[in-house]
Amino acid sequence: MKLLVLGSGGREHALVWKLAQSPHPTRLWVAPGNGGTAQERLANGRLVENVPIKAEDLPQLLAFAQEHRPDLTVVGPDNPLALGVVDLFQENGFKIWGPNRRAAQFEASKAFSQDFMLRHGIPTARSGTFSDPAAARRFCEELGGRCAVKADGLALGKGVLLTTSVAEAHRAVDEIMVDRAFGAAGSQAVIQELLEGMEISLHALCDGKTARLFPTAQDHKRALDGDQGLNTGGMGTYSPAPFLSEAELASVGRQILEPWLAGCAAEGIDFRGLLYPGVMLTAAGPKVLEFNARFGDPETQVYLTRLENDLVELLMASVEGTLNRTELRWSSDASVCVVAASGGYPGDYRKGVAIQGLEAAAARPGVKVFHAGTALKDGTLVTTGGRVLGVTAWAPTLQRARDEAYAALGLVHFEGMQFRRDIAAKALTPAS
Ligand code: AMP
Ligand code: GLY
User: Fold this and answer.
1) Cβ contacts of residue 22 below 8 Å, gap of 6+?
2) Is residue 220 packed enough to be buried (19+ CB in 10 Å), middle (13-18) or exposed (0-12)?
3) Among protein residues, the one whose CA lies closest to atom 3 of ligand 2
4) Which of 3, 149, 226, 309 suits 191 as a labelling partner, its CA being 20 to 30 A distant?
5) Atom of ligand 2 nearest to the CA of 219
6) Residue 155's pLDDT band (cuts 50, 70, 90)
């Protein structure tokens, strides 16, 4: 079976690593991939092949598929989904995993998602959707200025401003809706009440009718220790997160997924892919902050090091609508991923810096170094992005997984490397 994976981040390296462990693939291409994906080997000994086509270049991707006939294409990032890569491939007779353009609106439009949640009784923050800045400002006043002001469209995870006073909230509305700091994504804004509590990531694999909930994970979105600094794509994750028992997780999953599935059925939305709700566990119960329509990054790195199923078979079941016959199986190990980022990220940073120590880190048992912004240049591995590596370790306890991830990270070096030292710390020293 021939596979094509779209994307180039740590999430895609983790997907490729896990897909390559299956006996099914005979050939696996990644467009465009990174310095790590091209080092993975399939069960038949063949190397994974990077293809220099961007994940958003739909015409080139289709041409590649027409020439090489992949049996399944797996979409990693949100952009190609919002651009309709799934619809395009399906129209041309190709099997592809991921939500179609309409279903991908859960991530591509916060206004769509928020209105859907209100229509179908999915627990979420008190909120409103606005295209008129004056009305948006009035709603912020009603909320006493304690708001999350969000640009409607995709803004690389950056289009959200949290405010605690009316003056700040007014400025946030102006920035997003008037100055268009995030471009056209700000023609509409969703404003939510500011929620307090513990934030967790949920993932559910869906096939249009059935949703299979993953264990919990927690991301660390801020750049600096103690959740300080700017928002990033995610500086580290761990799974499971200890804030919900299994029974509580099942209950939270039901509260979100049952009305979500019923709403999709009622509105004729055929979601085959990964639904990733960001959830705040508040004193008044779980509330969905947003939906993503793809695997999280770096959540994927910790999930796939715990997943025991064959990922090719799972994604095929999601495409073909047979998830009701499949149970997810998870290792009881905990997994921790610490992201090594370029100095300055999420602001400006240097590229092309040589990376050392990867062999020593990779040689440790129970460790996998996933690449994100890396490339092989004249035989040397160099940095090409903000998030460079996701050093991931798994072990019977969270403490050991965390110690091992940091020990492996300590063997890796590149100039300007920055990382958080407190990944998973919240789980080990609960706030008193
Ligand atoms: P989003 O992209 O909508 O998940 O927002 C980015 C981040 O902002 C989330 O991961 C939360 O940490 C924070 N956030 C979003 N909405 C809210 C809210 N209503 N209350 C508190 N924090 C929020
Ligand atoms: N971990 C954050 C994201 O994937 O959006």
Assistant:
1) 43, 310, 311, 312, 313
2) buried
3) 296
4) 226
5) 1
6) confident
Measured in Å, residue 232 CA sits from the centre of ligand 2 at 9
Token pair listed for 109: 């439009």
Task: Provide the β-strand partners of residue 267.
Answer: none
CA dihedral 296, 214, 243, 406 (to 10 degrees): -50
Ligand 2 centre to CA of 378 (Å) is 32
pLDDT of residue 177: 93
Beta strands in 25-121 (DSSP E): 27-32, 49-50, 72-75, 96-97
219 CB less than 6 Å from ligand 1? Answer: no
What pLDDT does residue 156 have? 67
Q: Looking at the predicted structure, is the pLDDT value of residue 431 above 70?
A: no
Q: Distance (Å, rounded) from C-alpha 263 to C-alpha 246?
A: 25
Give the distance, in angstroms, between the CA of residue 207 and the centroid of all CA atoms in the same chain. 18
Q: How far is the centre of ligand 2, averaged over its atoms, from the C-alpha of 138 (Å)? A: 31
- Alpha carbons 282 and 291: distance in angstroms, whole number: 17
Phi first, then psi, for residue 306 (nearest 5°) are: -105, -20
pLDDT for residue 432 is more than 50 = no
Q: Mind listing the pLDDT tens digit for each residue in 163-208?
A: 999 999 999 999 999 998 888 877 899 999 999 999 999 999 999 9
% of the chain residues with pLDDT over 70? 99
Q: Which residue has the CA at smallest separation from atom 5 of ligand 1?
A: 160
**Residues 39, 72, 296: CA angle, nearest 5 degrees:** 65
Q: Which atom of ligand 1 is nearest to the CA of 199?
A: 12
Give residue-wise pLDDT tens across range 322-345: 999 999 999 999 999 999 999 999
Q: Which of 158, 232, 289, 292 to mutate to test the pocket of ligand 2 (most atoms within 8 A of CB)?
A: 292
Per-residue pLDDT band at 157 (split at 50, 70, 90): low
Q: Residue 49: which of 66, 60, 59, 37 has the closest Cα?
A: 37
Q: Is the dihedral of CA 10, 294, 151, 101 positive or negative?
A: positive
The three-class DSSP label of residue 70 is coil
SS3 state at 375:
strand
Q: How many CB atoms lie within 10 A of CB 226?
A: 10
- Whole-model pTM over 0.90: yes
Atom 5, ligand 2: residue with shortest CA distance = 296
Paired tokens of 128: 């409103």
